[in-house]
Structure prediction request, 425 residues.
Amino acid sequence: MNAHAPLPAAADCGVEVRQERGQRAVFCGLTGIVWLHRKIQDAFFLVVGSRTCAHLIQSAAGVMIFAEPRFATAIIDERDLAGIADMNEELDRIVGRLIERRPGIKLLFLVGSCPSEVIKLDLSRAALRLSKSLAPDVRVLNYSGSGIETTFTQGEDACLASLVPELPPAPAEAEAALMVVGALADVVEDQFARIFAELGIPARFLPARRAGEMPPVGRNTRYLLAQPFLTDTARSLEERSAKRLSAPFPLGAEGTTRWLRAAADAFGVDAQHFEAVVAPGQKRARRALAQYQERLSGKRVFFFPDSQLEVPLARFLSREMEAELVEVGTPYLHRAHLSEELELLPSGTIVNEGQSLDDQMDRCRKARPDLTVCGLGLANPLEAEGLSTKWSIELLFTPIQGYDQAGDLAELFCRPLVRRTRLEV
Ligand code: SF4
Prediction:
């Protein structure tokens, strides 16, 4: 470990974690396809689901399709549900047609849904069968995007976890290397890749942009999570002997510095060299954040549980923008992955794990926060009651990690406040 200059002292971990169970209002894991299909450029996501599933992805992705989309839905219809048609035969036919029409596909994900699970369609066997018949040109994997009991970011976790057993093995004698885990916008990935190169840390990213370029994994792999919702992926990586570097997430100037520093410490980067590499980015981030500080300082923020990004976002808003946290809801709290984030929250912060929609709505209405971060379904009713809202899903679609996106992250939270001021004027 290097003797780096300490960052501002963390608050005592006086966070109060409560748990709630009850009615939920979340999107399912199919939503992840909307950002994943742009990330792995020669992959295709074939949802095996109903018309509802098709509508969900179409409407979630509707505004973002600029080119031929790399996802589709194989619709399970009444004949399939009644057991009249052979679903496996139909699936093989659909996949065959798809690969014929789109020869650029190198990796095909069969994405399970509630209907495919109800009829117990075994997509892992289908993926094995299709992988054999399409080898060596196309690899077929499967994961589930279904779920009433899941959160929409779990789709990415399930997708990346399905990739891990396929990663090439890193030779036992290989030098230690860093793996950054979690889908990042290309622009963010490029910035981090440059910083790691300047620090002299050999770094690769999961997922890679192309199916054939996925990083190797082995006991010399140190991995750094770029997203806080990758429980299953982390477990699979550890089964392949990779070791996690504990860090907060790269949101804001402070989060980004602490995240990079975790890697620098693990790879023995000289403290002065680290400071010299990160200083320009830190400066740009702080300058960008200063523009929004006045608007966010002292604002009372309420997080509904939705994306699992809530704890790192709350940390960013409270420590870097001086916002006040009324309540931080999160659908699921991975205590180990979020331990550093929890330590940075101000003492007395209430973190609510799970969801009981009516109770949370009551608390939110009573608290009348300046800003409510919530799912799409809750935003309209709350806006109608005069509350300013931010859709949490937007924080997944927008590049927000790293120094050069810190200002954009702050601006995303300012936007609803500015809009309401205009409406009031
Ligand atoms: Fe709805 Fe399930 Fe399809 Fe998601 S997977 S759209 S929850 S039916």
Remarks:
- The chain has three domains: 29-150, 177-271, 290-423.
